[in-house]
Write a structure and sequence with these properties.
Blueprint lengths: L12 E2 L6 E6 L10 H9 L3 E6 L12 H17 L5 E4 L11 H14 L3 E4 L14 H18 L17 E5 L6 E4 L4 H9 L2 H5 L8 H13 L7 E8 L1
Parallel strand pairs: 1-7, 2-3, 2-5, 3-4, 5-6
Antiparallel strand pairs: 6-8, 7-8
Helix pairs in contact: 1-5, 2-5, 3-4, 5-7
């Protein structure tokens, strides 16, 4: 008999919630909204303090819109999107959309953000080469996710990035990557599902340029949440690959 584990369908564990502050670090506006925002809404409703840092402004993300127009518009949409899930602190690192490079400069910027915000929990996007189901991931997501994992360690090393003038921070307990094909944990978003839909809908200009399921927040997010829920007690859920420090 073939077990669920051999099929990549092992049951998911609950993401630990023994923390009070988190930092979300993703590549683009909309990255966390395609699934992970439901968890953010759940946690802010619990009174947890969460801030966002985005590597770029998403200026190259709409084919029909010049970057000089798209960038400022997508910043506004991301701020509105964060407000829908209870987040008011949103920062942008201004790396170039579409050609974000993994390397010391990116690690330095993310380590600085970790030292400033001093989170217990760091959340990033999928840094694996594919998405669940096998679709190819993009370079910006991989670069930012991997740099975030490394920057957590950098942030705690007082001899690395001394020029930042910020005290090192060793208080991160967990790093979680949303929507990883190697997900190990999940969050029940039954009560925060509507907030997650509202958060994605705030990306109006971006959604207007799409077609198919990804252009319909309710359809896309419900399908994804139900699929994860099959491995997490049958509830609406969103998944994470959890790394413990």
């Amino acid at each position: 008999m073939v077990t669920r584990i051999l099929l990549g369908m092992a049951d998911l564990e609950a993401v630990p919630e023994d923390w009070s502050s988190a930092l979300v670090v993703v590549a683009h506006p909309d990255d966390m909204e395609y699934g992970g925002a439901g968890a953010i809404a759940r946690w802010t409703a619990q009174g947890k303090n969460i801030a966002y840092v985005l590597a770029c402004r998403g200026e190259a993300g709409i084919d029909s819109m010049e970057p000089s127009v798209a960038g400022p518009l997508r910043v506004e949409e991301q701020i509105a999107s964060c407000a829908a899930v209870g987040v008011s602190v949103v920062e942008f690192l201004d790396h170039p959309d579409g050609v974000i490079e993994y390397g010391v400069p990116l690690r330095r910027d993310i380590a600085a953000a970790i030292r400033r915000h001093r989170p217990e929990f760091v959340i990033t996007g999928n840094f694996r080469e594919t998405w669940p189901g096998g679709a190819l991931n993009m370079a910006d997501h991989i670069a930012v996710g991997r740099a975030t994992v490394d920057a957590v360690r950098d942030a705690g090393n007082r001899w690395v990035f001394q020029d930042l003038g910020l005290e090192p921070w060793n208080g991160v307990k967990y790093v979680a990557a949303a929507s990883s094909p190697m997900s190990t944990h999940a969050v029940d978003i039954t009560d925060s599902f509507d907030a997650s839909v509202a958060s994605l809908r705030a990306h109006k200009a971006y959604l207007a340029a799409l077609s198919g399921d990804m252009a319909d927040p309710e359809l896309f997010l419900r399908g994804a949440a139900e699929a994860v829920g099959q491995r997490f007690g049958g509830v609406l859920a969103t998944s994470f690959e959890l790394l413990r420090l």
